[in-house]
Design brief:
This protein has 301 residues and is an alpha+beta fold. It has helices spanning 13-24, 70-82, 91-98, 100-109, 126-133, 157-168, 227-240, 268-274, 278-289, and strands at 2-6, 28-32, 37-40, 47-50, 53-54, 60-63, 86-87, 117-121, 138-142, 151-154, 173-178, 186-193, 196-204, 219-222, 244-252, 255-262. The chain has a five-stranded antiparallel sheet with strand order 14-13-12-15-16, with helices on both faces. A four-stranded parallel sheet has the order 2-1-6-7, sandwiched between helices.
Length: 301
């Protein structure tokens, strides 16, 4: 098969592993920087040009689009879809997962466990928001934040009100969520490929930090998840329409709650913690499912 890996940095661990796994299985794989692509939007012969040349036909494209370039990256991916190339994750599904508010609304509609969440913009009624959630402590997030950036813990009613009001003063959208104290600063990252959880790890934040992101000094170890957690991860991926993703969950007193569904999960932490060949599992999935013109969403938003 001829594969394309859409990514900005070919030297990242995750991207090198995907290339390695594809080549080990006898496939040709090209690494394409989507920001260097330009697209010819025509009715009968859509094309993608890269570094001055028209790209050949690929059997499958593996999108690894950074959050900061989601708009352009998904536009290029849509062009591949128009050309009949099979996408591991479709442009619509990636856009859904990147919109924190929309993703939570889709998960809620499917009855998937979530922390109590309030969405607000420039509100002066911080006390009303806290009342809806059930009081402090609460987690306050910028809607556009990634990797734990723009996430603040309001430990008391007074501090939470001050943070909400401060965010309101800079004309931004925020999410205010209940703080799952019983999680103890730990979360679970499960990798879903197709309709199966292939690997799971427990992440713990560094001392004094409630955020468990490995990028921010957190640690990770292999974990055996419960059947309910496994089901929650698979259902969350399906709600987004993603074939390959990382589902982040917390263990709460009322069962697993989903914090985020990541359409471009990193492989280094999960492979090192679990010993699972996630990249190989991804290529195996492509071998079984890649087919010309095969999509799930059929143009639906």
């Amino acid at each position: 098969m001829k594969l394309a890996l859409m990514c900005r940095n070919a030297e990242l661990y995750s991207h090198k592993r995907i290339v390695e796994a594809a080549e080990q299985r006898g496939h040709d794989i090209d690494v394409i920087d989507h920001l260097r692509c330009y697209i010819n939007i025509t009715s009968h012969r859509p094309t993608v040009r890269y570094r001055g040349e028209e790209l050949p036909y690929f059997d499958c494209v593996i999108p690894r689009i950074g959050a900061s370039v989601t708009f352009y990256g998904t536009a290029v991916l849509r062009q591949f879809e128009m050309m009949g190339v099979y996408p591991v994750n479709e442009s619509v599904a990636i856009s859904r997962s990147r919109d924190k508010l929309r993703s939570l609304q889709l998960l809620a509609r499917k009855g998937i466990g979530l922390p109590v969440t309030v969405f607000a913009h420039r509100t002066s009624r911080a006390e009303e928001i806290l009342e809806m959630i059930g009081g402090a402590p609460v987690v306050i997030k910028l809607l556009e934040g990634t990797q734990g950036i723009g996430v603040v813990l309001g430990e008391t009613e007074k501090s939470a009100e001050s943070i909400i009001q401060a965010f309101g003063g800079v004309n931004t959208n925020i999410l205010v969520q209940e703080f799952i104290k019983e999680a103890g600063g730990e979360d679970i990252r499960s990798i879903v490929i197709g309709e199966k959880v292939v690997a799971s790890m427990k992440r713990k934040g560094k001392e004094g930090d409630f955020r468990s992101n490995i990028h921010r000094g957190g640690t990770a170890e292999k974990i055996k998840i419960t059947p309910e957690e496994r089901s929650t991860a698979v259902r969350a991926a399906k709600a987004m329409g993603l074939n390959f993703c990382g589902v982040d969950m917390l263990r709460s007193n009322h069962g697993p709650v989903v914090m985020e569904v990541n359409s471009s999960p990193g492989l280094e932490g999960i492979e090192n913690a679990t010993g699972v060949d996630v990249a190989g599992g991804l290529i195996d999935f492509i071998e079984k499912n890649a087919k010309y013109g095969k999509t799930q969403t059929k143009g639906k938003g």
